[in-house]
Amino acid sequence: MQALRQPALWLYVGALFLWGLAVLLLQDPTLRETSFTLLMYVGLASSLNILLGYTGYVSFGHIVFFGLGGYLGFYLVSVQGLSLYPAALIGGVFCGGVAALLGLAVLRLRGAYFALATIGVNEAARAFVSNFSPFGGATGLSLDYSVYNLYGGSMTALWLAFVLVWLTAIAVVITSFLVKKSRFGLGLMAIREDEDAAMVMGVRTPTAKTWAFVLSAFFPGIIGTIYFFKNGNVEPHDAFRLHMSIETLVMIMLGGQGTVLGPILGGLGYERLRGYLLISPLFKSLHLAISGVALLLIILFVPAGLVGWLRRRFAKLRGVLE
Amino acid sequence: MVQLVNSLTDGFLLGFVYGLAAMGLSLIWGVMTVINLAHGPVITVGMLTTYLLFVHVGLNPYLGMLIAAGVGLGLGLLIYVTAVHRVISAPHLSSLLATFAVNMIMLGIFNAVFGGDQNNVDFSLGSLSIGFLHITYSRLLAALGALLFTAFLYLFLYFTRPGKAIRAVANNREAAELMGIPSAQVLALSFGLGSLLAAVAGSLIATIFPFTIFSGGPYELKSFVICVLGGLGNPLGALLGGLALGLMEGVIPMWMPTSWVPVVEFALFVFVLVVKPTGLLGAK
How far is A96 from A219, CA to CA, in rounded Å? Predict the structure, then answer.
């Protein structure tokens, strides 16, 4: 495992680890809530990056796995009375399975057709869950308050949710790094550059693409379960927001697609910016427009994102900017 | 049976309007292979223009439609110049995100200016009864308006010089440039026309249903479904796809609850994309 000896990996993991530790030590609920959202987005953006950044397939339906995994995990916890840990894991594995089956069909499409299909999948899943009575239909499900007692009361449960999302985010970053440095990742990047050439060179493109899709779907399933467990209720409208999918794309573009650090920085930057705009009285109602302008400027003028730009500008930093 | 005929007629007439909105999307894709994610807000602009003119100026909504068309054209040109032109040859992700950024900007501005209230163009024309068949005049006029603009698009594309230039650029941009066609201007014009159709569709929808600033979104998604049914880049296919979708929306509630309609629509959408991405009516 040569990848484990690279300084960049330990730098990112160390930073995320210290951050979570600091939150745990400070015991500040506001800081915990902010960190929860930030780490959740880091996890979502990094997992999407495996498909989008490495493989070059633009998915607008990433959030479908967040929603499906969240729904299934939530259902297991609230209706079936399962513990949170197996429920989250089942949510993740289920999403991986769905991605494998779905991938067989939609990964044959390329470019904009794939992007359109993922929008369709997201809308179909939302519409289906809105009508699916075991999942509570359009009103969704909500958690009985007594469930939190199993985890030492609702306050402790909130801290537990934070720890889980923190560990998941670290796991996603490690996975993303290992994938990038592996032979498998090299195959994915070959697909991104030229799928036909990659095929000729001996990359088993259908298998590689499907695995990339499965990997990128597994983590949102887990994060979804934790998120809705913490929220205490789940609704179709919350779980399958097309807008959230696209925000994840924006984070990747901000930070730099195809890099490990990019989605982390992009996720943090975008969420901080939005948080600032939402509370500032001047920009509150315009926050969507300002995020839009920022996105447009980046796409038009810095398409490689922050990390890509830094890498090109400062060649010496390339060892730590992966 | 009576109910079936009535809801089929309603769906059929609405289908023309769906088709019109989808035609705009299809035209833009056909000419420059860009999926315009700002289509929804442009539809909303059409709705808002008609509504504002009706409420504040008292203008007849069907005359307001013409002004909405002009606004849509101008807006389309503006979007093309500011957001799309620089990424026209970049990978799909760039143009998808650029048009989505426009979507966010427009929704943000609507939200700041108009808020999320429901608006209604309160302009009733009554309904036409033929035997047991009841058709509201607003639907009938909306279908007529959609047909009128389809005819206009057809005549423009086939019998005018700029229209022929659009078809040439759609066919082969490099070859068209070599023949002396200014492709940047032609692309801008096509984007403008696509937005014009979206705005007119929005304006017609506003005469039938109440709307909010977010109402364009669902019609944008419907346009995707229609374009895929009829074949992306095929305006006539878009009209037929729109009619098919309208009829489906009329028929499906006969067998299952209305809330299942989107499940069927989007499942069909993904299915057609996977099996025949060129569309049911598309070429090979």
Answer: 9
Residue of A nearest to B114 (CA): A285
Closest CA to A134 of A83, A86, A217, A74: A74
pTM of the model: 0.87
Q: Give ipTM to 2 decimals.
A: 0.84
A-facing residues of B in 116-175 (CB < 8 A) are none
Q: What was the pLDDT predicted at B192?
A: 95
- Among A51, A43, A45, residue whose Cα is nearest residue A250: A45
B266 touches chain A (CB under 8 A): yes
Chain A CB within 8 Å of residue B245 CB: no
CA distance A98 to A65: 9
| Residues B89-107, mean pLDDT to the nearest whole number | 87
Give residue for tokens 């730098």: A11
Which chain A positions have a beta carbon within 8 Å of B109's beta carbon?
A: 286, 289
- A194 contacts on B by Cβ (under 8 Å): none
CA distance A97 to B4: 41
- Return d(Cα B91, Cα B29) in angstroms, integer: 14
Instruction: Pick B97's closest partner by Cβ from A109, A123, A253.
Output: A253
Quick one: pLDDT at residue A72?
94
